[in-house]
Amino acid sequence: MSFLFIGCRWFTKDSLVSFSEAFSSKPSVLEKSLKRAERMKEACGAKCVLFLLFVQTWLVENAGHTSPGKPVLLRCRSPEKETFACWWQPGSDGGLSTNYSLYYTMEGSREDAVHECPDYKTAGLNSCYFNKTYTSLWITYTISVVAQNALGNKSSDPMFVDVAYIVQPHKPENISAELRTQDQKPYLMVKWDPPHKADTKSGWITLQYEIRLKPEKGAEWESHYAGQQKQFNVFSLHPGEVYLVQVRCKPDHGFWSEWSSTAYIEIPDYFRPRDTSVWILIAVLLSVCIFLILAWTVAIKWNRIKSYLLPPVPGPKIIGFDTQLLKSGKSEDLLNALGCQGFPPTSDCEDLMVEFLEVDDSDEQKLVMNEGEDDLEGRVKSSGNDVDKDSGRGSCDSHTLLLEVSNSSTKTYAQVGGNSNNKGSVKLSRKSSTNGKLLSFETAGEKTNTWPTANSPFLLARQSSCYNISKIHREASSLGNKADMHGNTSSTQSKSKECRELHSTVSGDQETWFADEKHAPLLPFKSVEYVEVQKLNQQSMLILKPKTEGHKSVPPEFIGQEYTKVSGVVSDRVLLLLRDTGAQGSSNTQEGENQAVHPSLQCQVGKMVGTFPASPAPEGMQLAASGYVDTAALLQSF
Amino acid sequence: MSEAYPGLVLLLVLQVCAWVLLLWRFWGVLGYPLDCKDEQGNVISCISISLEKLLDRVIQHAELIYHVSEESCTLFEEMFVPVSMRTQQNRASNTCITKAFPIPGSKSEIQKISDKWLLHSVLMLVQSWIEPLVYLQKTLDRYDDAADTILNKTKWVTNKLSSLEQGIVELIRKMLDEGLLAVEHQQTLTRFNVQPEVVESILRDYAVLTCFKKDAHKMEVFLKLLKCRHTDKMSCYIS
């Protein structure tokens, strides 16, 4: 401005000066004109300046209300490739009311064939809508927007539009999400429809779809490309959450549509099959652990468990019986411990008779014989105190009493010989029925025994045992051999004689007896014969000697009687027997003699009776009339 | 005067500068050469749609038109035409209005045919069918609601046919460098003003549909042939 003023002034001044020089003739006039020019120049400059100032300020003021700003075309879009619309953004309006108009030219037509937008309203504000009539797929559009106000107009940058390439469909419609299960696994089936304006049925537009979903509380979307199908299955789901699902579409050449409206679907909590398998695995592991623990416990406590479940079977045990003693072989101690005396009983009389002879001299039982009891005792008793090797004491068996094992058979005879009464008589009953002989032994001494007749079939136990002994002896060897043996045994000749006689006598009848015995071993003897055991030789044979009975003969009435009564026991050693028939008084006389009897010689008739074995001995027992108790019958009945 | 000369120059320069400053905003109004840019800001050539794209689109049009016309024809046949009469129309193809067009058959004939001929033939076909289809729409209205789908399809076909016409014109213009104006369709409805009987109406409509179907197929074939020539000139034939 100041420059202008200066320039204007300068210009006017110079021009005025030059102008004044031309016109002035008088020097005095020049001086006047110069002064006038200077004044005019100053005035003109001022006016000029003012004028310029005025013009410029006017221009500056008009710059505030300027033509509108340049609009910007934002986009043009076709939803179905049949129509399209364009939107622009207006620029500054320049302070004045500005209107916008859109002009387009169609490629191929004349350059100046500019058309204006047919529809400004349909697509909204600042938009232009081209309907079907104005839309051509064959040409490109050159579109621009012009902003115009009072001061001017402004055109936007043109946009070239090929309708086929600006297709942006509407968003898909009717989106639905459905929960389904496949093999116990849930999945989401999403269905939708294409935008109703897009002509996909005829193939005019082919759309591709895309799905996205996220949990309600999730942060990011999970996208899936669905192709051209109108449904899609989603498998990666988290149960117990609400999912949001959206779909959008795009043509082959074009833009993605907007995301459709959201579909909400809730995934319920389900028991996944994976969990059941996990539970099964846990159960199996637990059972295995429990089993291992139990096995370990059982292994540790096995002994106690075994003793509890399977208590040990008690072995056989007898109170007071010590298996160790048994094993040691000391049978005596064992039996003593048991408190059994005289155990075990011999099993077989025959064996005993074969092997050994034993007479028990126990004080418990005594046998008192009426007549010849002392003889009996003498005969019978032996040193029964001697204990056998193979058994306890002498058994209660009668025949053991009769049988003398020891070598003290001499005593027997001596004692027997000592008896004055010579009551002891041995009667041998001969069972043989055929032989009715009456064996009579004639004793050297006073004792005389009369043998009963054959009709008196009684058998004395002792005698039968003696008989048996004799039998055995005879069976074993001939008596004749023994003649020398019993020679020295008896101190009393009588006895020996008796025995001898007996033996001799017996030997005479040996055959017969043998025959009798052999042939009729079981027949009861009908006659009673008494033998006394002399000794037992080394071959375990019994030396028998007949015993003569000096007493009166057996009363016939005693024949057939088998039992006798025990009247009493005397001094624990003598058994008083009664004769049932006939004379009974003779039983009382035995006391005295018996006193002197060696205890060892006492015969335990009871024992005899009780233990007389069931041998092929005479079975019947008869009571001799002489008063001798024939316990054979008792025994046999036993 | 020489003293004021630089002053004058200075003044002039300054004035010009002032005006320039003032008028700076309005510079664009005056116009300047446009750079052809697309939406993304890329500089593209300002030429129009390429020939290949044009051909593709035209062919797509023709394919779709044929497809839809075939559907509508089948629908009409199933709904309205008795079985006994179906084959008659197929034999009587001479009733089609476009029978005057010779169709090249052999390979040698095809090679003799020029692009011009193809394009003009297609254009003629298209233009000749717009009216009959319009009339067909009117006749189909009389069929109650049963023919709604056919009617819609026919309408659709009509639209597309018009569009195809424009495409062909454009194609001719580009390919043959000929300028053609859109031919004003003459109202040649005089032929169809007669109100026939129902049976004849059905048959006639059926004839129209079938004939159009055939012509649509022809258009598609010609255009594909044209495309084939542009891409591979050696092995094109009419199948």
From TrEMBL, chain B:
It is found in: Secreted. Its main location: secreted. Keywords: Disulfide bond, Hormone, Secreted, Signal. GO terms for cellular component: extracellular space. The keyword Disulfide bond applies. One of its GO terms (biological process) is growth hormone receptor signaling pathway. GO terms for molecular function: growth hormone activity; growth hormone receptor binding. The keyword Iron-sulfur does not apply. It holds the Pfam family Hormone_1. Belongs to the somatotropin/prolactin family. This is Somatolactin. The lineage of its organism: Eukaryota, Metazoa, Chordata, Craniata, Vertebrata.
